[in-house]
């Protein structure tokens, strides 16, 4: 962490004050979480952020996946680094309206595992908020570490008064076991569940054009009904997402007419409506 | 944890002694890990265990995935519980040669997230070894939590002198980023890398029978060459595995002639050879 030592704070009260100030300038804070890894949480986070800037919003994307930060790879900004200025640290600018910070930017070597003990990890995440110039934002998307352990919980607790959490799942039961845990987890965070997204939902064979439900179907809808939380939509299993995630070319821009892009747009529209309504109620 | 309070130890030296004694009766200890979740680590662990018992070995399977324990669901033993006897606690018997313990058996409610802080989790895992009657085993398969954080490292440190670790990945680059971390992680554990398994490798359309590399291809082989570690084999993306994992019917038994079953058998054969050779060298 010493590359940013110039701006590091040792005074806890001062850090909390800075976190509170910086969060105060952000209208909506949304967590993206999943009960287990590998369901596409980071891909979903990145594409929601991109869909939001396409709608004209200013967005921050904070990749808090400490052990497997993949946002920089997905957005093609692996070689970028935040810049330390006199006013603080500037997150990486992906476009004029999209600021990104990721644990990956702090790692010297992309092949090294992060084996930090708990307190150091939390200090790093707090610094993501306290010492970075996020500025005035419409949305901050927080990509939490996968799972429902103490790590995502501790991170969530750093950012109080959020708009809630989006839970990403795949359709099959084994993954849904962990969605049920996620929903209970969000309730324990005292945050609302904005809704469930069912990712990798149905695959269309590029040869014969038939659809195969590789990971089964409709598990997300079923769980949202069981738990009485909104269902935000399905995203198909699409080799183009894998390809664009690996090449660092933003999927939303690359293939603007596909069903997958449409799915992300519709989901983001629902998220905006949900969070705007909540905001209006609070302002009243 | 109080359901097992009768057998809980409070004396640390006594616990370490018991762990050492119990591990001494197990010929081979193998970790199964993945740099990120959702790559099928638990499915692979369960099917390797099943392939080993089909070869006549006695096997223990320890599901240490604290936040998303899915082994009981995969093996259809969700409603079973370990039995406390005068001699200690008996792991769940799946077949006469397969004993299973999972964090899932300790949870009252399958929908509840485990939000235990670090020390309590480690105490639970230690108890899995110290207080359970694993008896004489040929193999203990340890399904670690996903990722390369302090949690899998702490668990790995409870079981010294292992035969090494099997690293499970999917073929695409984003997942491979975390494999590189895993390999470095295993080296930090001072354990050998037994080899890499590439899961979800190629999908054959059930309608037109053409193969589509949904998650790209050959990433696992490439990484094994880069890092000079053995490549154990590819397992196809197979809706039948999803189906059998969800229904709790063992895949290895259910569909004994598929390419997927053959892939698991060939991989297990390589693991046996690798660990037997290491054992012979040590005995000499």
Which descriptors would you attach to this protein?
homodimer; 284 residues; eight-stranded mixed beta sheet; 41% helix; disordered N terminus
What can you tell me about this protein's structure?
The structure is a homodimer of 284-residue chains. Chain A is of the alpha/beta class. Helices cover 41% and strands 19% of the residues of chain A. Chain A has helices spanning 12-24, 41-54, 71-75, 118-130, 150-158, 173-188, 219-227, 239-247, 251-254, 259-283; strands at 26-33, 59-63, 83-85, 88-90, 92-95, 98-102, 137-143, 164-169, 193-198, 203-204, 211-212, 231-234. The interface between A and B is large, with 58 and 58 residues.
Concise summary:
2 copies of one chain form a homodimer. By secondary structure, the first copy, chain A, is an alpha/beta fold. Chain A has helices spanning about 10-25, 40-55, 70-75, 120-130, 150-160, 175-190, 220-225, 240-245, 250-255, 260-284; strands at about 25-35, 60-65, 85, 90, 90-95, 100, 135-145, 165-170, 195-200, 205, 210, 230-235.
């Amino acid at each position: 962490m010493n590359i940013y030592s110039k701006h590091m704070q040792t005074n806890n009260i001062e850090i909390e004050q800075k976190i509170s100030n910086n969060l105060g300038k952000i209208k909506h804070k949304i967590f993206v979480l999943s009960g287990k890894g590998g369901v596409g949480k980071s891909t979903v986070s990145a594409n929601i952020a991109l869909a939001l800037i396409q709608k004209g919003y200013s967005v921050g994307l904070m990749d808090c996946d400490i052990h497997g930060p993949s946002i920089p790879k997905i957005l093609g900004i692996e070689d970028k680094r935040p810049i330390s200025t006199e006013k603080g640290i500037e997150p990486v600018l992906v476009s004029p309206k999209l600021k990104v910070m990721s644990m990956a930017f702090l790692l010297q070597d992309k092949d090294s595992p992060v084996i930090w003990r708990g307190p150091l990890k939390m200090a790093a995440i707090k610094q993501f908020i306290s010492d970075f110039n996020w500025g005035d934002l419409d949305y901050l998307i927080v990509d939490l570490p996968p799972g429902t352990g103490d790590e995502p919980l501790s991170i969530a607790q750093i950012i109080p008064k959020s708009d809630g959490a989006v839970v990403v799942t795949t359709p099959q039961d084994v993954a849904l076991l962990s969605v049920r845990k996620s929903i209970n987890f969000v309730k324990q965070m005292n945050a609302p569940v904005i809704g469930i997204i069912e990712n990798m939902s149905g695959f269309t064979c590029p040869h014969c054009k038939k659809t195969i439900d590789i990971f089964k179907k409709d598990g997300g809808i079923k769980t949202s009904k069981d738990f009485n939380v909104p269902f935000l939509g399905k995203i198909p299993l699409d080799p183009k997402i894998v390809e664009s995630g690996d090449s660092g070319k933003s999927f939303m821009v690359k293939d603007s007419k596909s069903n997958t892009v449409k799915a992300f747009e519709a989901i983001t529209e629902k998220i905006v409506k949900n969070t705007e309504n909540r905001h209006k109620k609070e302002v009243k």
